[in-house]
Design brief:
By secondary structure, the chain is an alpha/beta fold. It has a domain of 166 residues: P-loop containing nucleotide triphosphate hydrolases (Rossmann fold). The chain is 45% helix and 12% strand. The protein contains eight helices and six strands, in the order αβαβααβααβαβαβ. A six-stranded mixed beta sheet has the order 2-3-1-4-5-6, with helices on both faces. α7 links the parallel β4 and β5. The longest helix is centred in the middle third of the chain and has 25 residues. The radius of gyration is 17 Å and the shape is globular.
Length: 240
């Protein structure tokens, strides 16, 4: 699937060593889109890797945190408070940043990251974790990002009419955070009510900066460009 006339070598160079992030509520289609986009980028000659927070690779801290969170083995922990759960997630993030993400970026590999610190903030707030605690946790994570900023953050969403209860609160919190973070990073709000190929093509347009000059229709990705130069570095911690 190729949607641009740019030479493959130009695309590979433009995305070399870039961090591309996918965020959104559970069930918004992040993992499926990451897999499709990775395949499409490899078709352009982009050397890319997929990873996720907290992680799902065997024998990693991220996999352990994922199992604790989703209670795949509830014999080990009877109950955990929301603040402690988010602290575990941040610990898993730091482990993945240090062991996998930063080394890949330094080698010029494009990293596609399924979830970001945004999920810690959003799910923590919805669960009632205090903003002060979350900010302290995220400042620690920021130290380990070593100033790296995403090339773009894709915020995926489904039809909000299908959401209710906690998921609706999560969706609203993501939208609010995205508006704030658009001042620091390039954010693309991407409705994912299409088939995966259509959504993948929309994401490619954003990545290759092939946006339409006319105002986008509601079904297209809405890109809010960063007000800062595209240095790839900057602050992550939300000022909320």
């Amino acid at each position: 699937m190729k949607t641009t006339q740019l030479p493959d070598c130009t695309i590979a160079s433009a995305l070399s060593g870039r961090l591309i992030v996918f965020e959104g509520p559970d069930g918004s289609g992040k993992t499926t889109l990451v897999a499709a986009l990775a395949a499409a980028l490899r078709g352009y000659g982009v050397h890319c890797e997929r990873t996720a927070f907290p992680g799902c690779d065997d024998k990693t801290l991220g996999k352990l945190v994922h199992e604790i969170h989703h209670q795949t083995d509830n014999r080990r922990i009877e109950k955990i408070v929301p603040t402690s759960l988010q602290a575990l997630h941040v610990a898993a993030h730091i482990d993945a940043i240090e062991q996998r993400i930063l080394p890949a970026l330094r080698k010029g590999i494009c990293v596609l990251l399924d979830r970001f610190w945004w999920s810690t903030w959003v799910y923590g707030r919805v669960a009632g974790v205090s903003p002060k605690s979350l900010r302290l946790l995220l400042r620690l994570e920021q130290l380990h990002w070593a100033g790296i900023r995403p090339h773009v953050v894709f915020l995926l969403s489904r039809n909000t009419h299908l959401l209710s209860g906690p998921l609706l609160s999560v969706d609203h919190e993501y939208v609010r955070l995205a508006k704030q973070q658009a001042k620091l990073n390039k954010v693309a709000q991407l409705p994912n009510d299409h088939d995966v190929q259509t959504t993948c093509e929309l994401a490619l347009r954003v990545l290759l900066d092939r946006r339409p000059t006319r105002p986008p229709r509601p079904s297209r990705a809405l890109v809010v460009p960063s007000k800062h130069p595209d240095t790839g570095r900057g602050s992550h911690v939300p000022r909320l």
